[in-house]
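Contributing new records

If you add data, match the layout below exactly. Sequence lines come first and carry their own label; structure lines follow with theirs. Keep one chain per record. Anything else will be rejected by the validation script.
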Amino acid sequence: MEQQSIRICIADRYYPLKVAVNDEEKIRAAARIINEKVDQYKSRYVSRDNQDALSMAILQFVIRLIEAEQKEESKQIVEELQNLDTLLDEYIKVNIT
């Protein structure tokens, strides 16, 4: 996997990163989204600093991540229950009827 060096800015700080070439666009998009959210919090809470805005942005993103993970877990549980139901139906057809 080919790597390249890039430099991204998050909340007015620059970070050098070594990333896979095919991940660069994704990483830059993530940094752009983070910066937009930080800017929203900075404009809402003018007396706060970048650290506060960054913390609130991260909190919001992690809440969304947890919600997405919970939805995915629910989907997996439903799929497993449906598979179990199918197996039980097949067992009943073969052994009871």
